[in-house]
Amino acid sequence: MTRAAPNPARRIREDIEGRIHSGEWKPGTRIPIEQELAARYGCARATVSKALGELVAAGLVERRRKAGTFVAHPPVHSAVMTVPDLAELIAARGESYRWEARAILRRKNAGGADTLQIDGIHFAADEPFALENRTIELAEVPAAAEANFAAEAPGTWLLAHIPWTSARHIVRAVAATRAEAAALATGSGAACLQLERDTWRGDRPVTHVRQLFRGDRFDLVAEFQAGTGKREGN
Amino acid sequence: MTRAAPNPARRIREDIEGRIHSGEWKPGTRIPIEQELAARYGCARATVSKALGELVAAGLVERRRKAGTFVAHPPVHSAVMTVPDLAELIAARGESYRWEARAILRRKNAGGADTLQIDGIHFAADEPFALENRTIELAEVPAAAEANFAAEAPGTWLLAHIPWTSARHIVRAVAATRAEAAALATGSGAACLQLERDTWRGDRPVTHVRQLFRGDRFDLVAEFQAGTGKREGN
DNA sequence: TGGGTCATTATGTCTAGACATAATATGAAG
DNA sequence: CTTCATATTATGTCTAGACATAATGACCCA
User: What is the pLDDT of residues A50-109, one digit of tens each?
Assistant: First the structure.
């Protein structure tokens, strides 16, 4: 068996990426079949296939059986937005962080199960940074009943205690109500960024949170790199 | 050579996903080595390796040479946000779409190169939906000089003409100025969602756009599914 | 002309074995 | 007791060949 070259798959991937980025192979173009690419790069077809698989994952190409592999059409712009734990976000800015719980109470949710409701404020450098209204389903996270949310922000606590989740975020611009404006030390009606997040474990709801940020103190940053799938943010 | 089972790689991936989701394998846990998994599932090590590779891509596990494969720690919440072409977005809602260019002019940018500046309004069902201020670098997109942006929105045109890009988005809540409020048929100071996007081709800037939406008529939806990398949105 | 069947083709997936590489653990030397 | 060299180990990547599968297009028949 011949010795393998250092990094054929990577070389193939980068070569094809380059041809697409440069415009040499335009969206919709059919690229050579795997056999031919294998011959051209002097490697096994499985290696070409792996490289193409990565390009599919990156959204650069599409493969159709029998038809061949085609340069994908430019994506509707999408971006990976990271929505970090507020404590971490603020620590990363080098500011002091503080959480203040305003109300913690148990109640029944629509299904009759126990729900923990927590309201509070996040402070950055002793200035109010975000309001938070959260509910936690105790059926999914029984340990939450014993946690001390007056000291530790529930988001941070949940990150450390929930195995794995899927989530849906809704980002919206809203005007602060009088009460919200007062809590955020801004004017009534001020533009605020509202982030709502529903979190599930499997298909059962775990927590719902609404965070309200002063529009002049917070923004979301999202990056998108076609071809690499790399993600950064905030 | 033995006949291959229908979908070993997928079975392996889903089994491991399940153990992670259920909490059986907690973050930081070392999972069995590839050889052992291969034996357990009755397949070749390469197949296990492929399955693990997909789990890495999904962010569920981390692999370290010699050390082994470990369940990844839950991600700081991230989500894939899709920022669609406005014409498509509005068409998908079943509303009529219209673009109105307000100002198109050439000017020199900071580097002395030619820049096209375009301002306009997007309408959904004949109501103003978004303001757009855009600049296009003619050095990167010379064809833009001949395009008729009075008829076709520049975002739509660019999607069809630019080979591939990376982008950075900034989402922020801002208060509408008097002029903006008037153009959007809302009140002065109304909360608006501002989306800024810088787009590059390779490392050269292509276009910058600022879109301003009425906060009560638009929101961004972003989904995140740990383990699958699936993306949906809006 | 319309429609159904079938061979062809290109991707999809897997196997068994080989060698590369990096990080850890071990043991020897100072 | 510390430090450096070495062996071990688990992942990383590749090869060559095999069979599966889906979609296309050509062919044949009504």
Answer: 999 999 988 899 999 999 999 998 877 788 888 878 988 888 889 999 999 999 999 888
CB contact under 8 A, A223 and B189: no
CA distance A194 to chain B (A): 9
Residue B230 sits at φ, ψ, to 5 deg, of -65, 145
Locate the chain A residue with the closest alpha carbon to B219: A172
Could you tell me the CA-to-CA distances from B159 to A156, B8, B155, B156 in Å, in that order?
A: 40, 39, 6, 5
Cβ contacts of residue B25 below 8 Å, gap of 6+? B16, B19, B31, B71
Please state, in angstroms and rounded to a whole number, the distance separating the CA atoms of residues A100 and A185. Answer: 15
| φ/ψ bin of B5: left (φ > 0), alpha (ψ from -120 to 50), beta (otherwise) | beta
- Taking the CA atoms of residue A60, residue A164, residue A104 and residue A177 in that order, the dihedral angle to the nearest 10 degrees is 10
First and final CA of chain B: distance in angstroms? Answer: 48
CA distance B91 to B178: 29
Beta strands in chain B (DSSP E): 30-31, 61-64, 68-71, 78-82, 97-108, 114-124, 127-137, 166-175, 191-201, 204-214, 220-225
Question: CB burial class (10 A; 0-12, 13-18, 19+) of residue A108?
Answer: exposed
SS3 breakdown of chain B: % helix, strand, coil, rounded to 5? 25, 40, 35
The C-alpha atoms of residue A47 and residue A30 are separated, in whole angstroms, by 19
Question: What ipTM does this complex have?
Answer: 0.83
Asked if B77 and A88 come within 8 Å (Cβ–Cβ), the reply is no
Minimal-distance CA residue of chain A relative to B198: A223
Flag the least confident range among A110-124, A214-228, B59-73, B92-106. A214-228
CA distance A83 to A115: 24
User: Please, which positions of strand C sit below 7 A from a protein CB?
Assistant: 8-24
| Residue pLDDT, tens place only, B7-33 | 789 999 999 999 998 889 999 999 999
A18 touches chain B (CB under 8 A): no
Give A114-160 pLDDT, tens digit per residue. 999 999 999 999 999 999 999 999 999 999 999 999 999 999 999 88
Strand C protein footprint, C-beta under 7 A: A 1, 3-4, 6, 33-35, 45-46, 49, 52-53, 63-69; B 1-2, 4-5, 7-10, 42-47, 50, 64-67
Q: How many CB pairs under 8 A join A and B?
A: 199
The predicted pLDDT at position A100 comes to 94
Please give the Cα distance from B174 to B214 (Å, whole number): 10
Chain B, nearest residue to A58 by Cα:
B57
Tokens found for residue B93: 């809602």
Distance CA A93 to C1' D24 in A: 58
